[in-house]
Write a structure and sequence with these properties.
Largest sheet: 7 strands, parallel
Protein name: S8/S53 family peptidase
Strand order of the largest sheet: 6-7-5-9-10-11-12
Strand content: 5-15%
Helix content: 25-40%
Number of helices: 22
GO molecular function: serine-type endopeptidase activity
Structural class: alpha/beta
Pfam families: Peptidase_S8 (PF00082)
Distance between the termini: 32 Å
Shape: globular
InterPro entries: Peptidase_S8/S53_dom, Peptidase_S8/S53_dom_sf, Peptidase_S8/S53_subtilisin, Peptidase_S8_Ser-AS, Peptidase_S8_subtilisin-rel
Radius of gyration: 24 Å
Keywords: Hydrolase, Protease, Serine protease
Number of strands: 14
Length: 598
């Protein structure tokens, strides 16, 4: 087995041919560049896309990128990309179920006295504004964190149940099936009765046993066993306690009448197999499931995953994903326009400190002080508990539950008959954003439209199919591909939080790193931008080094930040970053660009 760098694992290639029905040509190219015994599997609806596999770790990261450039150069090949299981690099090491109090203490140790003063003043202003709003009847009651139903109250779920699901024989969300790609399931009393195990699949071991072994993998650096059970519980757990857990707590899901299908795709939520996730999404679409709730993600994109997303949405599947936890940008697949990206809010209706944020966020939902079901293995015995935690991993399934309420209330078959299947995800997304609550001092361009309101959503009239413009996903892939191009938009997304005030700094730093000028930069990024973005996504030290360069540039006078001066006078920080790249197994093509060699 070849040792890989960046703690990533090679899984295969994605190849797109120039026109349909070129499978034989694709196989010929693969055999010529990669050798015999590689599998070439058609995917998607276009008859132009193929997944190329042999064995995991068949190539090192460097070898994979070298072969990618060779594949791209072949006649008939429009694009080729390597597939990796990639780590999500956190800007602050944080377990997804770490108590909120510990987070606050840790944050305070790294906060300057000036930040504390400004934070205090900001809190005073918020209290003043909130008191005025409360006096005017504009704010809701203050919820308590020890109330196990506070998230449902915040989302106005109980009001939605009462108004739109009056039949006591049909629980809210009835008739809806939610696919749940995650770490698998356990027999926790809070979820077991609402699982459709006969419909599930394990993409890790390629069998039908989706059980979470609750053990850490030897090959994955960061693991969260039991994550699938916990995130499922906030969707489908029946009302009230299903067992005695010793602390008087329980979980009630947003859509207790819905059914959930476990699809095991990973040991860990922070080392994502894009191939497994893509296959799980296609599996869910082929099975006719209605919603996909994704509480995992990675910092690196690929067309293989997006192809699967479009494939599912053309069949009317609503896909909801977590924006990321302790990541400086919105992760994938949440960052794709076709996916509803959910960030995390707090009990005080603020954005949660660890939530990934940015322009790609659609909405927010509670993600702090969340009560959830958890199964742990202690000395070989399974123990079922109710714990409290945090993370966008909980925010996304809460919204998936709201989606189940919406589909159940309107009737999915009726919606398909009225609009066609492929428009349903986009109609839901539009109504979801339009009916959100917008708290005081909310930033829509960072936190999404607001905090989801289930009552308003179900009360909202459906759009006129004639007068309202809804872009179906069949065209979305062609219209919204810049974020995965490896060009400037890709890096603008990855470093959005660092260049809010001056987007030119990003271009300047990229040009300096690649030893080029303003005119030549787009061309160079077209060639090697995807690999460079991959390096930033999976290497936290490199990412932080680049942000250091951006910060240094911002302190300079504007007249000194010109493309013309960058090529001849690279900074020490930029040289350090270039050396880091050269030492970590990059392709020969990227090596030449960094060294400005032909």
């Amino acid at each position: 087995m070849t040792q890989n760098t960046f703690n990533s694992r090679f899984e295969g290639f994605f190849i797109e041919m120039v026109m349909p029905d070129l499978e034989d040509r694709c196989r010929e190219v693969v055999s010529q560049i990669l050798g015999d015994n590689w599998r070439c599997t058609p995917i998607g609806d276009n008859l132009t896309e193929f997944e190329i596999t042999l064995n995991d770790d068949a190539l090192s990261i460097k070898q994979a990128w070298d072969k990618t450039y060779e594949l791209r150069s072949q006649p008939g090949v429009v694009d080729a990309e390597p597939l990796f299981a990639v780590p999500v690099q956190e800007s602050r090491k944080q377990n997804w179920d770490e108590p909120a109090e510990l987070v606050s203490n840790t944050q305070s140790k790294n906060t300057s006295i000036f930040e504390l003063i400004f934070s205090f003043l900001d809190r005073l202003l918020d209290l003043f504004v909130s008191s005025r709003r409360e006096a005017a009847g504009l704010d809701r009651p203050v919820f308590q964190a020890n109330d196990v139903t506070w998230t449902l109250k915040e989302l106005r779920v109980f009001e939605a149940w009462q108004k739109y699901f009056p039949d006591s024989n049909k629980l809210p969300g009835h008739g809806i099936i939610i696919a749940h790609p995650d770490t698998g399931y356990t027999q926790h009393p809070e979820i077991v009765d609402n699982l459709l195990l006969e419909e599930g699949y394990d993409f890790v071991d390629s069998d039908r046993d989706q059980r979470d072994p609750l053990e850490k993998s030897d090959t994955e650096l960061i693991n969260n066993p039991g994550h699938g059970t916990s995130t499922a519980s906030v969707i489908i757990s029946p009302p009230g306690a299903q067992a005695n857990y010793g602390n008087g707590k329980y979980v009630t899901g947003v859509a207790p009448g819905a059914k959930l299908v476990p699809l095991r795709v990973s040991y860990s939520v922070v080392l994502l197999s894009n191939r497994n996730l893509a296959q799980a999404i296609e599996y869910a679409a082929d099975k006719g499931f209605h919603i996909i709730s994704i509480s995992l993600g990675a910092g690196f994109y690929n067309k293989r995953l997006r192809s699967a997303i479009v494939y599912a949405q053309k069949r009317g599947v609503i896909i909801i994903a977590a924006s990321g936890t302790w990541i400086p940008f919105v992760v994938f697949p949440a960052a794709y326009d076709e996916v509803i990206a959910v960030s995390a809010s707090t009990i005080n209706r603020k954005i949660w400190v660890g939530a990934s944020r940015g322009r790609k966020v659609d909405v927010s939902a509670p993600g702090d002080n969340i009560w959830y079901a958890r199964t742990v293995k202690e000395k070989g015995n399974l123990i079922h508990r109710i714990d409290r935690g945090q993370g966008t991993s909980f925010s996304a399934p809460l919204v998936a539950g709201v989606a189940a309420l919406w589909l159940s209330y309107h009737g999915r078959d009726k919606l398909i008959q009225r609009y066609g299947a492929e428009k349903i995800p986009f109609i839901f997304n539009q109504l979801l954003r339009e009916t959100c609550d917008t708290p005081v001092n909310w930033k829509p361009n960072r936190y999404g439209a607001g905090i989801v309101n289930a009552e308003k959503l179900l009360a909202a009239p459906l759009p006129d199919n004639i007068n309202r413009s809804v872009i179906p996903p069949a065209f979305a892939l062609q219209q919204h591909t810049l974020i995965e191009s490896g060009e400037l938009d890709t890096f603008a997304h990855m470093f959005e939080s660092q260049q809010e005030n001056n987007g030119d700094l990003l271009n300047l730093q990229l040009a300096q790193l690649l030893q080029t000028n303003q005119t030549e930069l787009p061309k160079k990024l077209q060639e090697i931008g995807q690999e460079l973005a991959f390096c930033f996504a999976v290497n936290p030290e490199l990412y932080e080094q680049f942000t250091t360069c951006l910060s240094a540039d911002e302190k300079q006078q504007p007249q000194t930040r010109q493309f013309q001066s960058l090529r001849s006078q690279p900074s020490d920080s930029t040289n350090t970053m270039r050396e880091m790249l050269l030492k970590q197994g990059i392709s020969e093509t990227l090596n030449r660009k960094l060294m400005n060699r032909k």
